[in-house]
Structures are given as structure tokens and as C-alpha cells.
Amino acid sequence: MKLPCILALLLAGVRGFGGDFQPRIDLAGITLEQADASEVRTGKEAIPRKSVALSLGEKTPVHWTLAYTGAKDLTNILVHFYVVKVDRPGRPAVRETKPSAILVENAMSLDLHAKDDAKGEIDLVFRAPGIYLLRLEALSGEESMVSATLDLEVRP
Strand 59-68 vs strand 21-27: parallel, antiparallel, or unpaired? Predict the structure, then answer.
């Protein structure tokens, strides 16, 4: 029997208004808090982060929230959530990938006012084993303002 847990990735902001964002991802199976945004800051190849093991074919609910805690209104902020198959754990954010590697991707452009948040939920069902990268990010232009990233290991 699985105990429902909450995965909370809370990352410190990196540039611009990044410190005014609090990303949160809720996923059955683990509780995690992380405050390391080195992936965005340095772009290094190996990114140490938590990995969650999931079962092939199992329905996995994911709930995400990107809370904006700033006082200044922001326009045209892209909120981007995606899950892609990758070749190894610790892979940096994926900017371009084969369409066949994308399990899910959604994005919305928002104008955010003080204390606004964006929310979404999706049920993931993995049909192929492997390593997947799950990421929630806020972007302004091509620059990532804040992100929450997790490796998913899908086992048969």
C-alpha cells in the first residue's frame, strides 16, 4: 500500500523576479524540499537532484502550483510544465527534443498580479520504462526565472 506523500520543490529565485516565485509539485510517493537553483545559474551538465521510482502503467497524479509572491505586476510570463524521456538522471533542462520523447508538455502565457498563482494537474501514465525529467518553470523571454525539476525512474 502506498502512503500518499507530497513532493514539494521550492527553489530560490535566480534572476529578475525569480525570488518572488515559489514552484511546488505534488506527486504521490515522496516528500522533498530543495532550495538549489544551480541548474539555472550555471547550466552545468550534471545536476544532483532527487529521483522518484514509479511503476510502468501506473496512474500517477501530479498537481503543480507556481505562486507569485511579488508586489509588482508582471506581463507575458510563460509557465511551462513538461515531462520528457532522457538518456540519464541529472540531465539539464531540455530545450529541444524529439517529439517521441515528450510524454506531456503544456505552457501558458500569463499576466501575474500581486499574490497570483497558476495551478495545474495531470495524471501521468508511463507506457515505456526509462528515465524521465519532470520540470515546472517560469520564463521571461528565453530566460528561466525559477524552476522545479525532478528525475522520474519508471520501472517495469
Answer: antiparallel
What is the DSSP code (8-state) at residue 15?
A: S
DSSP letters, 45-65, are: S-----EEEEETT-EEEEEEE
C-alpha cell at 4: 500518499
CA 106 from chain centre, in angstroms, equals 11
Report the C-alpha dihedral over residues 63, 70, 76, 146, rounded to 10 degrees: -60
- At 90 the pLDDT is 86
pLDDT, mean of residues 103-112: 92
Q: Taking a C-beta distance cutoff of 8 angstroms, is the pair 119, 65 a contact?
A: yes
**All domains of the chain in start order, with CATH:** 18-155 (2.60.40.10)
Look up residue 71 and give its three cell numbers: 508586489
C-alpha cell at 136: 515546472
Q: What is the pLDDT of residue 141?
A: 75
Q: Name the average pLDDT for the chain.
A: 76
The predicted pLDDT at position 154 comes to 96
